[in-house]
Amino acid sequence: MTITYILIALIAMFGHSEDFLGTTLLSRPLVLGPLVGLVLGDITQGIIIGGTLELIFMGNIKVGAAIPPDVITGGVLGAAFAIISGKGPAIALAIAVPVSILAEMVISGLFVFRSVLNKKFAQYADDGDYKKIQYLHVLSGLLKPLLMGVIVWLALQLGAAAMKSFLDMVPAWVQSGLQVAGNMLPALGFALLMNLMLNKNVAPYFFLGFILAAYLKLPVIAIGGIGVIIALIVTQNTPKASTDDDDDGDTEESPAEEKPQQKLSKGDIRGLFFRSLALEANFNFETWQNTGFAFAIIPALKRLYKTKEQMALALKRHLQFFNTSPYGSTLIIGITAAMEEQNSNDPDFDEESINSVKLGLMGPLAGVFDSLFWGTFKVIAAGVGASLAIKGNILGPVLFLLIFNVPHLLLRYQLTFIGYNAGTRFLQNLAKNNVMDKLTKGAAILGLMVVGAMPATLMAITTPLSIGAAKSGASVQGILDQVIPSVIPLGITFLVYYFVKKSVKTTWLLLGLLVLGFVGSMLHVLA
Prior knowledge:
Elements: H1 2-16, H2 29-39, H3 43-56, H4 71-85, H5 89-114, H6 118-126, H7 130-158, H8 160-169, H9 172-184, H10 186-197, H11 203-214, H12 220-236, H13 255-258, H14 266-276, H15 290-304, H16 308-317, H17 329-345, H18 352-389, H19 395-428, H20 430-433, H21 435-458, E1 466-467, E2 474-475, H22 476-483, H23 487-501, H24 506-522
Antiparallel strand pairs: 1-2
């Protein structure tokens, strides 16, 4: 069985390598279950177990800053032990659920550990050494599949009985406390976004997004749509910059303005798409997808900047905090490439505007594309695939991957070119029609509305307290919901935001949230 266990561990490693493969859902139980069945000589049972687990975990997805239980490790071990024991989907579920929770604790610890590497990335950026940034991004990304592969192999060596005995030793109150603590972690990501985007001019849009989500229960994609409309209305009123006393509305440009020097080829832009697939390979709880963004755009930077000083400045720009939906990330990458190209051509270009546009766009794009792909394509794909898989039909996992990834990869590829071409057109008229001000302001409005909606939609934190007798007393949560729904997640987010503004290290804030959630659960104050 040694070779068999190694092959199953490799399947788990393959699932955890999805961060290098563009979040294409190759890590789902519906895909990995049949692979485990193939190794163990019962592919039909693997398909059925994979389909069953997919239905159970269909809502277990990574949206925004929320880190869900690890269905990769849980699904692989659940399917393996179920097939080995011959007990089918029931034992698979019994093992998969607690294992996925424990495995996610290990992964969360890895995400915290990766933050330590940020000093190295910053050092390499200061030196203008893009090669070491690339190598470290890849090496750090390999830690997760290697670590989880070893854990799966050890679990298989111990056997199903030993694994269940260990899990039974973990008290229920510990699991509940960890679950509450995990639900609080997104507040750190929201606070970091607010720190980058919030100012007195656009702050009302944050609260508008919160009200739409908390009171009207609108989904994030609807709030993003409203944000687009508001941003268009507001930016239409942004005054045009004067154009050398030319008031006749003529926007004719000289040949040099119409055709700025183009240094990036179609092959370069295509390379941005392929590199974007590794956006989340080094995901961490401090700077999130920043090294993935830098890794994606480095080929363009190599083409545009020929001195170490220029490269160092560009690398430091793109190692700042970044987090968005991987499915819409190429639109930002394409626009950024166009802006970097303009920066390399124009010595008077405002370099700060590059990060302003990135930060402004990442919030709304995260809300829109996560909702589109997780809430639409993924649900349809899983529904079709799982309904076939539970009958043992191999078309289940095949259709699941096709329904999701055909639109995903086609759109992601096209968005790279759309972003680059749109960015080029916008920037040609930067001084004349104030496009950058409009884009930055509109993106800030969109971003803050979506971020404002996130505490109400992505943080499931409530209080079980009651006023008066235990059975007949009034529920504190019920009273809060009547006054300000989701006020606890909002309050926690602003508490973290306060400490972020005070320059408290994100690692301490992360640990503080874990302790607060665990203690709050133990004292029955938070749930």
